[in-house]
Amino acid sequence: GAPAISIFLKPPGVISLGGSTTICCGCQRDSGNVVLYRNGQQIRTLQLRGSQAEFAIANATQEDTGAYSCHCRDGDTVLARSESLDVRVEEFRLPRPVLSVWPGHEVAAGAHVMFRCAIAHANASCFLHVEGQVNPYLILKDQDYFNFSCVHKGHEGRYSCQCFTKNRSFKWSAVSRSLDLVVR
Q1: Domain count, the chain
Q2: Rounded to the nearest 5 degrees, what angle is found at the Cα of 36, between the Cα atoms of 28 and 130?
Q3: Strand, coil or helix: what is 114?
Q4: CA–CA separation, 137 and 79 (whole Å)
Q5: Which of 90, 118, 151 is at the close of a domain?
Q6: DSSP 49
Q7: Model confidence band, residue 85 (pLDDT cutoffs 50, 70, 90)
Q8: May I ask which residue range the UniProt record assigns to the signal sequence (predicted)?
Q9: DSSP readout, 116-165?
Q10: Boundary residue ending a domain (44, 68, 90)
Q11: Contacts of 48 (CB under 8 A, 6+ apart)
């Protein structure tokens, strides 16, 4: 069968104007190339290293905004295509949120875990990101936490949050410091 391919941002979230990020493409192969596309246009090719290719974006501008995807290739043959990853570049206008986890960074399987994303802004909603996952969890503005009622090994990872407000346009915060969750 065709190899699976993944795409994610490291660190996850909206990128600050002038900031940097890395687009990570993983392909279940030891050799070959990964081609990065933005809005359907080929922009870069890298050789796989340990089944992954990392494309750096430095000094981000609005031109870096778009829908990105990766193709895993062996010569001219496309072996797999990733899902699309929407990348946004914005000027940060909100304070940086603070992420905390209760009862702690290390928990037993089956435990109840609460991530709290605190920001000094009354009308902000936030996204809880997990590094390596494309889709974040949404924390609505009338609550500042996200609960996992029965954690398992699949919940392990590096978490961060980023907040926004939406009136006429979106205003974004920087991404919080990250926290690692370990499930025993």
Answers
A1: 2
A2: 65
A3: strand
A4: 31
A5: 90
A6: B
A7: very high
A8: none
A9: EEE-S-TT-EEEEEETT-SSPEEE-TT--EEEESS--GGG-EEEEEEEEE
A10: 90
A11: 27, 29, 30, 31, 32, 33, 34, 72
Is the separation of the CB atoms in 161 and 175 below 8 Å? yes
In a domain? residue 1? no
pLDDT digits (tens, 9 = 90+) for 87-140: 999 999 999 999 999 999 999 999 999 999 999 887 889 999 999 888 889 887
For 17, the domain range is 6-90
User: How far apart, in whole angstroms, are the C-alpha atoms of residue 115 and residue 92?
Assistant: 23
Query: Please, is 50 exposed, middle or buried when counting C-beta atoms within 10 Å of its C-beta (0-12, 13-18, 19+)?
Result: exposed
Assigned domain for 112 exists: yes
pLDDT tens across 38-62, in order? 999 999 999 888 888 999 999 999 9
10 Å CB burial of residue 41 (0-12, 13-18, 19+) is exposed
Q: Is the dihedral of CA 17, 67, 10, 12 positive or negative?
A: positive
The phi, psi pair for 34, rounded to 5°, reads -120, 130
Q: Is 63 helix (H, G, I), strand (E, B) or coil?
A: helix
Q: Say whether both 100 and 140 belong to one domain.
A: yes
* CATH assignment of the domain containing 126: 2.60.40.10
Q: How far apart are CA 116 and CA 119, in angstroms?
A: 10
